[in-house]
Write a structure and sequence with these properties.
This is Gfo/Idh/MocA family oxidoreductase. Helices cover 34% and strands 25% of the residues. The strands form 2 sheets. It has an 8-stranded mixed beta sheet with strand order 8-9-10-7-11-12-13-14, with helices on one face. The chain has a 6-stranded parallel beta sheet with strand order 3-2-1-4-5-6, sandwiched between helices. The radius of gyration is 20 Å and the shape is globular.
Amino acid sequence: MHKKIHWGIIGLGNIAHKFAADLQLSDNVMLQGVASRNLEKATEFASTYNAVTAYDSYEKLANDPKIDVIYIATPHTFHFENTMLCLQNGKAVLCEKPMGINSTQVKTMIQEAKSRKLFLMEAVWTRFMPAIEKMISLLDEETIGDIIQIRADFGFKAELNLESRLFNKKLGGGSLLDIGIYPIFLSLLVSGIPTDIKTMARMTETDVDSFCALLFDYSTNAKAVLESTFEANTPTEAYIHGTKGAIKLHRRFHQPTTITLFKDDSETVFELPYTGNGYIHEIEEVNSCLRNGQTESSKLPLEFSQNLITIIDTIKTQIGLNYIADAE
């Protein structure tokens, strides 16, 4: 490993801009290369974020011997092939969520990384936010007792453009994969794998979900009520209720800066802002893992990502949501 960790970025859309801006906040990091199918776009991006090299193909970037780790920010349906390309070229990977379209893809990616002893992590940035770290510590200390209920929603009113990535099935559209993954992530983080899942959804004419409601049951008899939608601006908050109190993750709960602890008829508010655009926290986790020779994060292990996509697969089956990769 170089003294500096050399990053590459594949896919240069909105999220990549925010990520690249946060890379600038990290010490001992260099943005070695960025890649787009459009060289002009890649060159402009490289200039904006001080990248050493701009590439007009993902293959060229994956073959750059100076790059240690590649952040993949392409649409959902390309995550598998892009990640496999990078792993097969000996590169560590941070792949945007969802890591794959289904559990088969994710399992294959994990096997590839392990066989090559390469680092791989799903970019669920929420896990590394300071407010989420505080929430975990409160739960570990059993501050609110045994968990009995989780409620989480994520919704915004999206313009019904059937060609956009939100509604285009070929790009992995639908609220479940795009934003529903956050309530599911939270429930998995807090209560583990549900023993029973009930679902209800509304589909668009492109056969992806614009609304998805979930009810999870757990072996502890705890329950989770989760929701995602492109049809309305919802509170986008989360509550974790326990036998001794409750924790609220304020809007927008997937990138929280405020959490409130309700206990003994009192409220304690914790203000825990994230740095930059919020991506720096997962960036530093990857940097730390690479410097320490780890092939996965203890905070977001590969088994967690496998469990997350397995739950999502169950939901997809129940609501009749399927993509080309599912047929393959």
